[in-house]
Design goal:
Chain lengths: 186, 504
């Protein structure tokens, strides 16, 4: 009887210590699901989802407050990825937020720029370079195509252009589509 | 021990079709009026131009420098004037344009001063690599990877075997065959230098048994160099795709390069015969890489053969020299019938990776609609990388790219054996190429979004900090104001009391 009690107490102590150690050692920082959702979002920080950036939207999705179909830059593929992650049915993109467009790039017409810095303040990723009363320019590699700089420009010198493909970013076409096209013609 | 030690799974016995292009010696393509030189003819970063429009350049003069580590220089293939630095159509399956330097030749073909190395043994492997990099040498087998990187084993590896790949397994192509027949000595010059740079213990020249003339010519040249005691020729059976890097290593040494690994991980470095020749020219003659041997062949070519062609020569001029029955702008194949791709457009230039131009294929398969996969498994049995093309096909088609990765899509060498045997004529390799570029694109976008997130968060943090600092300044100013006010009041109070005291 006594040995049984001692044995069980010891066991409980050891396991308790083990669990305690594990909870300290493998502590989960923050909410991992928010991180995971945030990773899937395109990080344009455009606010078309009505949240102030991708992370707040990720937090809202994680809290179950909004649908997963409010991200036009991510489009179909992001919705699919989110649906897979959260194990819910994918939905078509909410058209209230916008429509899926090809990847865009902001281009400043440098002749017309008056150097007002308003676009610099609007850019969520610091992709516009310039100073007051000096010409501004977009760092093409950093631009996410969020269009937030277009609105504030007083002289309307920022254009959104479709990102041109080059041989390094070119993708082979989907053969199943090619076949469909050929089938359609025949 | 001049027998191959191993074998690779799968593969095909294909008809060689090489006779047509090996009846005549290598000929020089006449100098073209304009040479179009893409800044990126290699794997890695595009070269940066160091000339301007209007500059006079000499043959062999550097016109673009390497930009970053994985990059090589580019040289003027002939003397003339730079007439444009702009986007031009390049020989790429996309048909897109890329930055090119266009040189109008003056016909004098005047060399810049060359600096040959007297004796390569007097200079260090590092210096050799530097010269090779400056000479713009890339792998001439087809991929175009900068050679100086492959000649650098690094501090963690020792090179047991330097393998010279003379398999040239793809039908029709014969540029390495002809090079070995005619310039065996030049190849061995390069091989010696490569061995010195890598400090490789032994050298194996692997040649397929359907090239008896190349084998005998190499044997003869090797016999004249008794000091090369650790160099030997291994004759390997003709089978497609023996020329694949991993396949030839498996055949010659019996060792398998691990998935996601490099040959250097198992102590082997492999180079193409043409690359060895280019290395020899660069070190012993001070000549940068400005030309290569291109096979022009096919059923529609009258004078098929191999042509030493300056880079930038429009393919149409090369085809005109070889005389073809091709209509203007009719598509042709760049590369072999198995791995090459269709191109059209007459002004596309010959680049460092252009090994063969094929106009018209014997017994070409008729273009038919792909039928459903019947799961016969033929594709898996011919796959030289031991993959499951069928599974890869399903998942690529369903755009289930994570699954394709689990099935080792990136080990696929796109040899086309599966396409060749598929009874349903499914374009399997097209699906794999599609899936590969889609995955690479996703990867690029993920990197970009990570960068955007980082920049956004940094900006957010900066704005918060600025806000805090502003508040802090305001608080301090208020405090200072309050303090000075209090002080003034105190003084005023003191003044009044002093005045009061006086009055009293």
């Amino acid at each position: 009887m006594l040995t049984a009690i001692i044995a069980l107490t010891l066991l409980a102590l050891i396991l308790g210590l083990l669990l305690g150690f594990a909870s300290v050692k493998f502590k989960v920082e923050g909410d991992p699901i928010v991180e995971q959702i945030d990773k899937l979002l395109p990080q344009t920080q455009c606010g078309q989802c009505s949240f102030a950036g991708c992370r707040p939207y990720a937090e809202a999705i994680a809290a179950g407050e909004v649908d997963i179909n409010r991200c036009p830059p991510g489009g179909e593929s992001t919705i699919q990825a989110l649906a897979d992650l959260l194990d819910v049915e994918p939905k078509p993109l909410d058209e209230e937020c916008g429509i899926e467009k090809p990847k865009m790039l902001a281009v400043i017409d440098e002749e017309r720029c008056i150097g007002c810095t308003l676009c610099i303040q609007a850019c969520p990723v610091d992709a516009i370079l310039g100073a007051a009363k000096h010409m501004h320019t977009v760092i093409a590699d950093e631009c996410t195509g969020c269009e937030l700089c277009v609105e504030p420009c007083p002289v309307d010198c920022i254009d959104m252009v479709e990102m041109a493909q080059n041989p390094n970013t070119w993708r082979w076409p989907d053969p199943s589509h090619l076949q469909l096209e050929r089938g359609g013609q025949a | 021990m001049n027998q191959p030690l191993g074998d690779f799974p799968g593969g095909l016995k294909l008809r060689g079709h090489k006779k047509r292009s090996t009846q005549t010696p290598i000929r020089k393509t006449p100098l073209a009026r304009q040479l179009i030189l893409p800044l990126q003819q290699h794997i890695g970063a595009a070269a940066m131009p160091v000339v301007e429009v209007g500059d006079k350049v000499l043959k062999g003069q550097r016109i673009a420098r390497a930009d970053g580590h994985v990059s090589v220089c580019l040289h003027a293939p002939s003397s003339g004037t730079v007439v444009a630095i702009d986007e031009q159509p390049i020989p790429h399956p996309s048909g897109l344009s890329a930055p090119c330097i266009t040189i109008e030749t003056d016909g004098e073909d005047q060399w810049i001063e060359r600096h040959p190395v007297e004796n390569y043994r007097d200079i260090s492997p590092h210096e050799i690599r530097q010269i090779i990099r400056d000479a713009g040498i890339v792998g001439l087998g087809g991929a175009g990877f900068p050679s100086f990187i492959k000649l650098n084993p690094g501090v963690h590896h020792t090179v047991e075997t330097l393998l010279l790949n003379g398999a040239e397994c793809e039908p029709y192509i014969s540029c390495d065959d002809m090079l070995m027949r005619e310039r065996a000595d030049g190849i061995l010059d390069g091989v010696e230098i490569m061995q010195h740079a890598l400090r490789a213990r032994e050298v194996i020249l692997a040649i397929e048994d359907n090239k008896p003339l190349a084998i005998s010519s190499m044997k003869l040249a090797l016999a004249a160099r008794p000091h090369l005691s650790e160099t030997r020729i291994v004759v390997i059976p003709t089978r497609y795709p023996t020329g694949g890097e991993k396949q030839i290593i498996q055949v010659v040494t019996g060792k398998e390069v691990p998935s996601n690994g490099l040959p250097i991980d198992i102590g082997i470095v492999s180079h193409n015969m043409g690359t060895a020749y280019a290395v020899g020219r660069a070190i012993n003659h001070g000549e940068p890489l400005i030309s290569r041997i291109v096979t022009v062949t096919g059923t529609d070519v009258t004078h098929a053969g191999n042509f030493e062609t300056l880079f930038g020569t429009p393919i149409s001029e090369l085809l005109a020299f070889a005389e073809t029955r091709r209509e203007p702008d009719e598509p042709f194949i760049l590369g072999g019938p198995m791995m090459g791709f269709n191109l059209s457009g007459d002004n596309l230039p010959v680049t460092k990776t252009a090994n063969c131009i094929l106009v018209g294929v014997d017994d070409a398969a008729e273009k038919t609609e792909a039928l459903p996969c019947i799961r016969c498994g033929d594709c898996a049995s011919v796959c030289p990388a031991s993959l499951l093309p069928q599974q890869l096909y399903w998942h690529s088609r369903a755009k289930d790219f994570d699954q394709t990765r689990d099935y080792n899509l990136f080990d696929c060498i796109e040899c086309g054996c599966c396409d060749y045997v598929c009874p349903s004529k499914i374009p399997l390799v097209s699906y794999f190429r599609f899936a590969k570029t889609e995955i690479m694109n996703q990867e690029r976008e993920r990197k970009k979004s990570d960068l955007a997130r980082e920049r956004f968060e940094t900006r957010q943090a900066r704005m918060e900090r600025e806000q805090r600092e502003k508040e802090e300044r305001q608080r301090q100013r208020k405090a200072a104001l309050a303090a000075s006010k209090a002080k003034k009041e105190k003084e005023a109070a003191a003044d009044t009391t002093a005045a009061d005291d006086k009055e009293n």
